[in-house]
Specification:
The chain has helices spanning 8-15, 20-36, 40-47, 51-59, 66-75, 80-83, 89-103. It has 104 residues and is mainly α. It has a domain at 16-84: 434 Repressor (Amino-terminal Domain) (Orthogonal Bundle). Helix 1 packs across helix 7, helix 2 (20-36) packs across helix 4 (51-59) and helix 3 packs across helix 4. The chain is elongated, with a radius of gyration of 15 Å. The chain starts with 7 loop residues before the first helix and ends with a helix.
Amino acid sequence: MGTQALDVPALRDAVGPGSPWAKANGQRVIARRDVLGLTVRQVAQFLDVPVQTIYRIESGENTGRDYLRFGLAHVLVCSVDELFPPLDREAIAEFMDDAEAVAS
């Protein structure tokens, strides 16, 4: 079984900060926060982080470190996977295609 070389820059564009994947995660955080009636400021206070950190995660500018992902899931009363679904090969390929479409 052969393996194909991984295009790391393309992967970063697809699932790194500012990517379609990061933006989709941010939209899930916003949606969950809205369902609970929480403000960005309240979430930031619960997590003891600057408000700007939450804005960056919600905009997809920041993908969030693990402790923030767990903290967000706790504050938003859901699982980490609901906010930041794991990526399998198929999902990565889809996001890489989306990133290429945006770049062109």
